[in-house]
Amino acid sequence: MPIVRNLSRAASQVLQRPGCGCQASIGSVRCISFSPRKVTSDASFHSVSFSETDHPRVLITGGLGQLGVGLAQLLRKRFGKNNVILSDIRKPPDNVFYSGPFIYSDILDYKNLREIVVNNRITWLFHYSALLSAVGEANVPLARAVNITGLHNILDIAAEHSLRLFVPSTIGAFGPTSPRNPTPDLCVQRPRTIYGVSKVHAELMGEYYHYRYGLDFRCLRYPGIISADSQPGGGTTDYAVQIFHDAMKSGKFQCNLKPDTRLPMMYIDDCLRATLEIMEAPTDSLSMRTYNISAMSFTPEELVQEVRKHIPELQVNYNMDAVRQAIADSWPMNFDDSNARKDWGWKHDYDLPELVSTMLNLLGSVGTTTRVAQVN
Ligand SMILES: NC(=O)c1ccc[n+]([C@@H]2O[C@H](COP(=O)([O-])OP(=O)(O)OC[C@H]3O[C@@H](n4cnc5c(N)ncnc54)[C@H](O)[C@@H]3O)[C@@H](O)[C@H]2O)c1
């Protein structure tokens, strides 16, 4: 049991030492004895546990949402089933529960999070827990708690345990005073939703921890993500997922955005691949820590026209939701992702025609109700 002995010796040395002995240096890649919550820790202590595995040991927070289950599938293929732990505060459906490790984790519970990271020797953390834009506007105090206080917990734990941390940002991190067509990586960011404000906060705090404490923080600004595997989670771009379910189920679709509302969108496979690629990108290829990624940009009317190529009888009416429309009108119409393409070779696979045929094939081949029921 040499590892256990080494661990306990290192731990007892740390615990006997007065003060935190923090030696974090600005710009250093590795965090040395970072102690944000005054919990003593030590670089040698971490290296004992983490040098034991070739693969990262991954934790995904908020893993039962629209994106987390697909991310877990991708990462488990790459790193092995047992090296990827999904977590959430909701009860997982059977197919998720039996597909690999799942653990309860509330990101507002700092001690519980730390225990999970330590006990499972986590080295990479994908922080997906969030309240999305429309849901966040409906409950600002909760969105503030989950999206901001929760992020603080994640940042401190990631820095304390030298984790590589991925936090997704969004087109919603921009606002009406940002350039909208196209929107570059660096420009004015004055969003007017609590969701957007919390995501700008996440970008800035992550970058601050990177430069201040050496946290390996990596962040992508996702467009609206379209997937057949789950129901949308309360975002402004939900219509672009819902249309496929409704077209297959009833042939009728009510759109809550105006027909000419142009927004950047991406098929989930591209989004998850980009996420893995930026996490695997060599540190020296990253000239920034927060990148736009883009694939396509379309309006509801353009999407309807493309769906009608497959389902000509689709009936659509527009019943604008004022909250979502105001949000959409303040968001980018096109995303400039040239830095991601240049630095780490980002390239999307799916444009609008491939997206539509893929979604209809997936939902059609399995059946809308069955497929949605499997994951919710
Ligand atoms: N889906 C998109 O189109 C999109 C676009 C841009 C960015 N993103 C970002 O990607 C991430 C994942 O998005 P999603 O669509 O899967 O979101 P989602 O709303 O579908 O899922 C979020 C998950 O977080 C969980 N959660 C809520 N409170 C929690 C808490 N206190 N502790 C732990 N978990 C909690 C929820 O139970 C839910 O399963 C989010 O950070 C989101 O901002 C998503």
TrEMBL record:
GO biological process, any: L-threonine catabolic process
A Pfam family that the UniProt record links to this protein: Epimerase
Matching entries from InterPro entries are given as: Epimerase_deHydtase, NAD(P)-bd_dom_sf, NAD(P)_epim/dehydratase
The chemistry this enzyme catalyses reads: L-threonine + NAD(+) = (2S)-2-amino-3-oxobutanoate + NADH + H(+)
Report the EC code(s) recorded for this entry. 1.1.1.103
By its UniProt entry, which SUPFAM superfamilies does this protein fall under?
NAD(P)-binding Rossmann-fold domains (SSF51735)
Query: Which pathway is this protein engaged in?
Result: Amino-acid degradation; L-threonine degradation via oxydo-reductase pathway; glycine from L-threonine: step 1/2
Q: Name one GO molecular function term.
A: identical protein binding
* Domain (NAD-dependent epimerase/dehydratase) ranges: 58-293
Entry similarity comment? Belongs to the NAD(P)-dependent epimerase/dehydratase family.
Annotated function = Catalyzes the NAD(+)-dependent oxidation of L-threonine to 2-amino-3-ketobutyrate, mediating L-threonine catabolism.
**What's the protein here called?**
L-threonine 3-dehydrogenase, mitochondrial
The scientific name of the source species is Sphenodon punctatus (Tuatara)
